[in-house]
């Protein structure tokens, strides 16, 4: 099904105005597998002129798409969900090869995305406007009625990260399209093959020409040009705080929805179910090798139960399977790049040299870093504050819940937090005080279910995602006031 997006010499094409087009400049970027460095394909490094043309077509196409009925848009997106499932194995395989995600997580990313798309359609169909009477405001009589409907914003620029190349692209595209916008998708370069396959699925499902267009190229080269392009009406970005901050600095009068980095804390109190806490910490901290924005990234445990918790976590880490996802079902696979692995390794070395206690791990083979746990990490160590985006977790021992809250809130990040306790009072006490978008009680930090609101505060983002919230963010109220002449 996907052959036509792949040209000569394994060069991939971009979807522009309903056509799959190659690079005009003949400038391509090699996409190599993090697993074995094999060349998976080459994507165009698009020029400014190519970007201009994609945005121009998106602008034109949006006018017609805005007038397409919601039920017609929904039919097309339902078809896209069906096609995703039909091609689940192919997509999961390319995901494994391109971003080294394990087989089970790759397959579940595809099925979760199909569910996301269908739920988005159903939600959009059921969103309604409102009508307001003028006479509830002092000085007005009942001659005025405001009818408030939702209007699309225009061209949405969707920029997705490497770690969920299908899901975090589709979770921008589907709500944007259902709200009546056209979309320019700029995926992470490592992840762009998955994203081009996804775009071809939407195209095959019947998304009209120009309504969805793709732009490949390094963010460091074309990012500033696209994000400040006058043809863009909304930017939906997921990625690092560094790039998100840059986008918010250089853009002007364009609404932004940003999901950025995190340093989610799991707080374990003396009255916690330690078995439950340990299981959640291990799956939350190490799945996809810690390369999730919502991964548990530090453990704040009350001293009294720390030894017992550490022992339980260590036993569960020993059970994690490390290796190449093509060979076997693994929990820990190689990190996305050598730079990423070097960064994580540097954090590990620093934490070791500063005297923290290495409980398990601390081993590296190429870009494969074994799941690593440090105990007695102190707040003067980098690992207490920095986001590794890799399989390493610090344990910081605290005297009580107030100290845990204080350290948790000192972070620049505020994505999620988790508290493990069997006391409802303690759970609500901590949940109330954590400066984050979401607090999980007795569960790992995680984004789903996808219709829940998902948002970061402080350096973790701005605006709210989640199916209904994303549709609302990518549309605006438009009021028409009827003035009754009596
Ligand atoms: P990244 O380096 O910030 O890249 C994200 C996206 O931005 C990619 O498409 C990248 O393209 C693009 N980009 C880079 N420079 C740009 C620029 N100047 N202007 C516009 N776009 C630019 O992040 P990543 O390494 O892919 O993902 C890891 C980070 O994302 C972590 O910090 C993680 O916490 C965060 N994340 C957050 C969430 C969340 O929901 N809160 C979800 C997933 C990931 P190139 O690939 O071409 O550079
Ligand atoms: O990496 C960021 C994703 O938004 C996290 O989603 O919690 O379902 O893994 P997840």
Short recap of the structure:
This protein is of the alpha/beta class and 486 residues long. Helices cover 39% and strands 22% of the residues.
Provide the descriptors you would attach to this structure in a database record.
single chain, alpha/beta, Aldehyde Dehydrogenase, Chain A, domain 1, globular, binds NADP nicotinamide-adenine-dinucleotide phosphate, EC 1.2.1.9
Architecture blueprint of SSEs:
Layout: E1 14-16, E2 19-21, E3 28-32, E4 39-44, H1 48-66, H2 70-86, H3 88-99, H4 103-126, E5 130-133, E6 144-152, E7 155-159, H5 167-178, E8 182-186, H6 192-205, E9 212-214, H7 219-227, E10 234-238, H8 241-250, E11 256-259, E12 264-268, H9 274-286, E13 296-302, H10 303-318, H11 338-353, E14 357-360, E15 364-365, E16 368-369, E17 372-375, E18 392-398, H12 401-410, E19 413-414, E20 416-420, H13 424-433, E21 438-441, E22 457-458, E23 461-462, H14 467-473, E24 475-483
Parallel strand pairs: 7-8, 7-10, 8-9, 10-11, 12-13, 12-20, 13-18, 17-18, 20-21
Antiparallel strand pairs: 1-2, 3-4, 5-6, 6-24, 11-23, 14-17, 15-16, 19-22
Helix pairs in contact: 2-4, 2-6, 3-4, 4-5, 5-14, 9-10
Bound molecules: NADP nicotinamide-adenine-dinucleotide phosphate and glyceraldehyde-3-phosphate.
The site of glyceraldehyde-3-phosphate has 8 residues, from loops.
């Amino acid at each position: 099904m996907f052959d036509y997006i792949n040209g000569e010499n394994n060069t991939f094409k971009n979807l522009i105005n309903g056509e799959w087009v190659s690079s005009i400049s003949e400038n391509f970027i090699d996409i190599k597998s993090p697993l074995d460095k094999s060349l998976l394909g080459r994507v165009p490094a698009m020029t400014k002129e190519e970007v201009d043309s994609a945005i121009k077509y998106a602008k034109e196409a949006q006018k017609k798409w805005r007038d397409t009925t919601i039920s017609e848009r929904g039919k097309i997106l339902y078809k896209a969900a069906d096609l995703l499932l039909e091609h689940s194995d192919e997509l999961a395989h390319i995901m494994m090869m391109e971003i080294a995600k394990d087989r089970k997580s790759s397959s579940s990313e595809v099925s979760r995305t199909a569910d996301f798309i269908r739920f988005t359609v159903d939600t959009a169909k059921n969103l309604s406007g409102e009508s307001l009477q003028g006479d509830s405001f002092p000085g007005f009589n009942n001659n005025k009625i405001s009818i408030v409907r939702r209007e699309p914003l225009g061209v949405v620029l969707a920029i997705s990260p490497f770690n969920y190349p299908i899901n975090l692209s589709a979770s921008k595209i589907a709500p944007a399209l259902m709200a009546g916008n056209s979309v320019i998708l700029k995926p992470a370069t490592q992840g762009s093959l998955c994203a081009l396959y996804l775009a071809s699925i939407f195209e095959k499902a019947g998304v009209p020409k120009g309504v969805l267009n793709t732009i490949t190229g390094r963010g460091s080269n074309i990012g500033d040009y696209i994000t400040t392009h006058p043809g863009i009406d909304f930017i939906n970005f997921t990625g690092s705080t560094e790039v998100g901050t840059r986008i918010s600095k250089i853009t002007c009068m364009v609404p932004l929805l940003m999901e950025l980095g995190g340093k989610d804390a799991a707080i374990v109190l003396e009255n916690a179910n330690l078995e439950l806490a340990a299981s959640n910490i291990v799956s939350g901290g190490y799945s996809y090798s810690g390369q999730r924005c919502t991964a548990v990234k530090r453990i704040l445990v009350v001293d009294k139960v720390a030894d017992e918790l550490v022992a339980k976590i260590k036993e569960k880490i020993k059970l994690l399977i490390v290796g190449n996802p093509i060979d076997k079902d693994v929990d820990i696979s190689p990190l996305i790049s050598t730079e990423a692995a070097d960064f994580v390794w540097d954090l590990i070395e620093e934490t070791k040299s500063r005297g923290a206690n290495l409980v398990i791990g601390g081993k590296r083979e190429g870009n494969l870093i074994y799941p690593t746990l440090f105990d007695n990490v102190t707040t003067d160590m980098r690992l207490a504050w920095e986001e590794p985006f890799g399989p390493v977790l610090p344990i910081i021992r605290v005297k009580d819940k107030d100290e845990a809250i204080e350290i948790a809130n000192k972070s620049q990040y505020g994505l999620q937090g988790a508290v493990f306790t069997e006391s409802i009072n303690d759970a609500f006490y901590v949940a109330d005080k954590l400066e984050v978008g979401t607090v999980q009680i007795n569960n790992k930090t995680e984004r789903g279910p996808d219709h829940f609101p998902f948002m970061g505060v402080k350096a973790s983002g701005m605006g709210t995602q989640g199916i209904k919230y994303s549709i609302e963010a990518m549309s605006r109220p438009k009021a028409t006031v009827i003035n009754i002449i009596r």
